[in-house]
Amino acid sequence: MQIDFHHAATYVVARLAGFTHNEASTVAYASQYVDDSTNKGIIQFTNGNTYERIASAHKVFDVEHNCLNGEDYEVWVPFHFLPGNNGVPADTKQSVPLYQRLVCTPDSPLSADMWDQCRAKRADPNGLHRLGITAHVYCDTFSHQMFAGIRHPVNHVADLMHGAAPDTGILERIESAAADELGLGHGGALTDPDLPYLVWKYTNGFRQLREVSNHDAFLLASRRLFSQFIYYLSRDANTPMESRDLGMIEHLIASNVTSDPGSRHQSWLASIQEGSFSFGKLSDAEFHALNYLSYGVGSWKFLALGTREARDAVSQEFAYDDRFETSDWKKFHDALKDHQGFVLNVILPKYQLPKSYQEAKGLGL
Fold this sequence. Notes:
The chain has helices at residues 3-17, 21-36, 63-66, 69-79, 98-101, 109-120, 127-143, 170-182, 214-232, 243-255, 261-273, 284-290, 300-305, 328-350, 357-362; strands spanning 41-45, 50-53, 158-162, 199-203, 209-213, 317-318. By secondary structure, it is mainly alpha-helical. The chain has one domain (3-362). Strands 2-1-6 form a three-stranded mixed β-sheet. A three-stranded antiparallel β-sheet has the order 3-4-5. Helix 1 crosses helix 9 (214-232).
């Protein structure tokens, strides 16, 4: 999924579930920022203070990191391709290969454990940031199903066909070829799994022909995310979404037939601004605050560190401000580290799945 869903649709679903504008904005920003937080390492301040952050994504052409299996595992497995354990509970014995258990499946038992921990941490200062991260990972289990966050032939894509061909550019095709060669995630499928309107076919790494309706997967993800948000707010998770709102979500999923995520994102924002959902119109100030910037003036990073840059030099030092400690940027990164640690060190071992690539290799991956 891309910014139209991870940011705008997540905001909509959060509001429909009962979150306030400010709460939903924080959740939606954190959800999208998972895809944009590509820096890692130690932040150095001019007063001698330091802060360590991790990356929750790598760009396709970031060969330095995408060719490092250990780093791939720490990024793609907990944040984008949560293993599905073949869809079965932790106490169920299986005779399938390890790589099959590492393949992402929608709404898996592992995702239920992830949600349990997210709800347990809701009173924390970064509870909403953790919720946004959890929402991102959860929604990706629907769009990234049948792919794994490891470099492995199980991710190979062949015979790719589209019901309605996306306007894919030459750069995307080059990226796809590079990613398929790496065997990492859904790179070999271009951005097909992320396009809400698309119906597509391919032969997967199990040599199975799959026909995928992204429309159905995204709509189901919307409904299930609504249930998770309702439950997070200590309400009945079986509460249905109003038919008017579900219909508008379905319309936005189906009607934005372009591979440009920015264009789809703007369509969602326009519908929000017009008051198309039952929570009503936003004020001008609220709508302006909803705008997402991964970096630059007004972004979480800018407000915390005072930098306009997307990438930081290794030797760069930042002026320290006491407000850094309570900034959204720091809360997000604290939540990011907590989420990663819980998935790798608690959830995966519970299912007897490896918590690192080294361990996976030792188990015969």
